[in-house]
Write a structure and sequence with these properties.
Blueprint lengths: L4 E11 L5 H11 L11 E7 L2 E14 L13 H17 L9 E8 L1
Antiparallel strand pairs: 1-3, 1-4, 2-3
């Protein structure tokens, strides 16, 4: 058995799993497509420490494999784009029943799987 290491750079926020991450993944895969009209940029990311993945609602996400690098340019998004992403993320979180909705921001999430 081997391990796979990567890191994600994403815009969004963490949401509570409330159970096994795979169960939430199945729910998000079923529910998010229904919101594409209202939240076209919203997706999700699951990453973390091996069998303790965390779940994030995100609009933008870049993966960087171990031993590689990537130049990311969050400063190229406009204030209007950030506002639209924030509205979409909050709307999706409300529909998904997230109780406490944090402010979105740029996340760096190391992943080991």
């Amino acid at each position: 058995m081997g391990y796979y290491h990567s890191t994600y750079f994403a815009y969004g926020f963490r949401i509570p799993d409330g159970g096994a991450p795979w169960q939430l993944a199945e729910r998000l895969e079923a529910e998010l497509p229904k919101l594409k009209g209202q939240c076209p940029d919203v997706g999700f990311l699951q990453a973390g420490d091996y069998d303790r993945d965390m779940t994030f609602l995100v609009t933008q996400s870049d993966e960087v494999d171990l031993g590689k690098f990537k130049t990311v340019t969050p400063q190229t998004a406009t204030a209007e784009q950030y506002a639209a992403w924030g509205e979409q993320l909050r709307a999706a979180a409300v529909v998904l029943g997230v109780d406490e909705i944090p402010e979105p921001g740029w996340l760096v999430v190391p992943d080991l799987s």
